[in-house]
Amino acid sequence: MKQQLEQIRATAQLAIENAKSVQEIEELRVKYLGKKGELTAILKQMGGLSAEERPVIGQLANEVRGSIEAAIAEQGEKMKKAALNEKLQKETLDITMPSKTTKQGGLHPINIVLNDLIDIFQSMGFDVVDGPEVETDYYNFEALNVPADHPARDMQDTFFLNENTILRSQTSAAQIRTMEQRKPPIKMVCPGRVFRADEVDATHSPVFHQMEGLVVDKGITMCDLKGVLEQFAKEIYGEDTKVKFRPSFFPFTEPSVEVDVSCSECGGKGCRVCKGSGWIEILGAGMVHPNVLRRCGIDPEVYSGFAFGIGIDRLAITRYKISDIRLLFENDVRFLEQF
Ligand code: DAH
Q: What is the CA(171)–ligand 1 centre distance, in A?
């Protein structure tokens, strides 16, 4: 029996050392130490031993069990380490590899300027309204006091979809739509795209952007117009900006003005941005013509108002010193990334 035990110890030891997987070890554990295992089988025969032999064999059997258990534990540990090493080796990390960058988009310069304009006018209590880009002749011209054959139409030749439907040439059309829908007091701005049949060059594009403004209430005067537009110019170009109102003509305002600001680049001395004049023209404005109010059902004897139209592209170009308006529409990422 002693021999048998020694034999089991030796073969088990060898088998365990040669085991290649956790599963193999588990099988060996069952084979030697399990309920039906070899060691258990021998212990079952202990009853047949003499009183002297029994403790000796018992002790040896325990030793054998202990050494097999130890061998199993040791081999298991070795295998775990080997598995870990293999994993680490396979998963080597190259920290010199360039990381995956996510490209973050940004706002188009037109939208940056537009958002600023909206902020300024909203802070003065203006609503923001929307108007259609495809307009009727009536809203774009007729109701704005520009009947068919009026010479002012020449400057705003646009794209006709049919005889009465056009791509709007000015956001001023939104004045009429607003006055038809709401009663005074009205205080709104309407930003958007406008279209004209212009040849493309460094300063002209057949598509550009405007922001219309309209205020109608009792007792609105030219003073209100000047106050609002001066405040706007200072917020956009800085507190020291000088503002100049020049008489002008628009069919839908009377009197009409054009508004210039002192050049923010040279402070009025004359430079490339202001083309040497010291001034930059930023918008057209005026007191809403009584004909326009009347046509929208607003009594010009009771109400008065002022309106203005700002060229958003022009603002973007002067603010960012962009040399060519086409850059705004080509959407070359190398250009857009600068804003
Ligand atoms: N709609 C005019 C244009 O495109 C700009 C303009 C001038 C708008 C005077 C106005 C205004 O509201 O009062 O040239």
A: 8
